[in-house]
UniProtKB/TrEMBL annotation:
Domain of life: Bacteria
UniProt domain Mop: residue ranges: 293-357
Keyword Cell membrane listed: yes
Protein's name in the database: Molybdate transport system ATP-binding protein
Entry-linked Pfam families: ABC_tran, TOBE
Keywords for the protein's UniProt record, in alphabetical order: ATP-binding, Cell inner membrane, Cell membrane, Membrane, Molybdenum, Nucleotide-binding, Translocase, Transport
Lineage: Bacteria, Pseudomonadati, Pseudomonadota, Alphaproteobacteria, Hyphomicrobiales
GO molecular function term, any single one: ATP hydrolysis activity
Residue ranges annotated for the ABC transporter domain, each copy included: 2-233
A Gene Ontology cellular-component term: membrane
Family named by the database record: Belongs to the ABC transporter superfamily.
Source organism: Rhizobium lusitanum
Gene3D superfamilies: 2.40.50.100, P-loop containing nucleotide triphosphate hydrolases (3.40.50.300)
Length: 357
């Protein structure tokens, strides 16, 4: 299923210009506040009629200003999940879910009620009213309601933004199942790198109404001064590895990268599984000799590949650790003191690594 967006639109002083395609899986629209993510979702949804351009899903044209085509929102058969669950307070969870189902034409009901309830782990909640649910549970019901309308596409606009970290962590595995077990393409708006890194197959980076970069999540989140320079504090790399060992006593997972191994806190995974780990550049220190007596678990040997200076007095250093590139953000002063240059052998001391599963 391919969603294709090629539009131009003006909203007051703001001009939006976006061309991208999404070929199923999760496509994240990523960017800072005000970059135009929600406006694009609204155009895809049919809530905004674009000034110029075309939106299509496979052969079905949803909007084409050249041919005066505009399919209204209720005929697009898309599912929506917003920041707040927006459930009907006077209906039980079961009735809220059935309401979603009512929108799917009988012969096109691809999702079964029990299947969705099981996928989202909401069987125990069916007879409750929304007021008796936690924020995370409400959001799972909202996702279920959207799924039961058997949508051709699921539009999710910051679905986790209103939740605290614990609730987010509770929902993320369900979103992964949704991605892996249903065939419904998802457009996912978020400005959280951690969320996007974990869920998205493809990332469209927006800046000031324009598409700044587009590509697989792994590529996008590993760029040195690219899109993540949106907020330099968030620069970092996303690496892929395999779970080699799980250490029960200390609740650690050992992830084998191309050459190096990483100790990552947490254990919610299975042996042999391919996982992604996120290493923020600000949490990587560099040393020219192997440091000792440090609390950091991960000290990787590598070689400096690239050094780029930023206006704020910091430098970003790309270190090749046996085929995996780790990014370190250190001060210009430290870089000079260490005598960093391309080709120099260094040790990358990694303070935090997060498993993105
Ligand atoms: N109806 C409108 N009229 C005028 N300007 C608008 C309108 N709707 C949105 N804008 C402007 O368009 C820009 C993009 O807004 P949009 O909500 O799409 O951004 P966003 O990336 O989703 O931001 P956030 O992450 O804060 O939700 C903003 O500057 C906003 O003020």
């Amino acid at each position: 299923m391919t969603l294709s967006v090629d539009i131009r639109h003006r909203l007051g002083a703001f001009s939006l210009e976006a061309t991208f395609t999404s070929d199923g899986g999760v496509t994240a629209l990523f960017g800072r506040s005000g970059s135009g993510k929600t406006s694009i979702i609204r155009i895809i949804a049919g809530l905004i009629r674009p000034d110029h351009g075309r939106v299509s899903l496979d052969d079905s044209v949803l909007a084409d200003t050249g041919r005066q085509v505009f399919v209204p929102r209720h005929r697009r058969r898309f599912g929506y999940v917003f920041q707040e669950a927006r459930l009907f307070p006077h209906l039980s969870v079961r009735q809220n879910l059935s309401y979603g189902r009512w929108f799917a034409p009988r012969n096109e009901r691809s999702e079964s009620f029990d299947g969705v309830v099981d996928l989202l782990g909401i069987a125990a909640l069916l007879d409750r009213r929304p007021a008796k649910l936690s924020g995370g549970e409400k959001q799972r019901v909202a996702i279920g309601r959207a799924l039961l309308s058997s949508p051709r596409l699921l539009l999710m606009d910051e679905p986790l933004a209103a939740l605290d970290e614990a609730r987010k962590a509770e929902i993320l595995p369900y979103l992964e199942r949704l991605r892996d077990e249903t065939k419904i393409p998802i457009i996912y708006v978020s400005h959280s790198i951690a969320e996007v890194a974990r869920l998205a197959n493809r990332v469209v980076v927006m800046r000031d109404g324009k598409v700044e970069a587009i590509g697989p999540a792994l590529d996008i989140f590993s760029q040195l001064s690219g899109p993540l320079a949106i907020d330099r504090r968030e620069a970092g790399v996303l690496l892929e590895g395999r779970v080699e060992h799980m250490e029960d006593r200390h609740r650690l997972t050992v992830v084998a990268l191309k050459a190096a191994k990483l100790f990552v806190p947490g254990q919610a995974t299975s042996l042999g599984k391919t996982v992604r780990v996120h290493i923020p550049a600000r949490d990587v220190m560099l040393a020219t000799a192997r440091p000792e007596g440090l609390s950091a678990l991960n000290i990787l040997e590598g070689e400096v590949r690239d050094i780029s200076a930023a206006a704020d007095g910091t430098v970003e250093v790309k270190v090749d650790c046996g085929g995996d590139i780790v990014l370190a953000r250190i001060t210009q002063f430290s870089a000079e003191r260490l005598g960093l240059r391309v080709g120099l052998p260094v040790h990358a001391v990694i303070k935090t690594v997060a498993l993105e599963q």
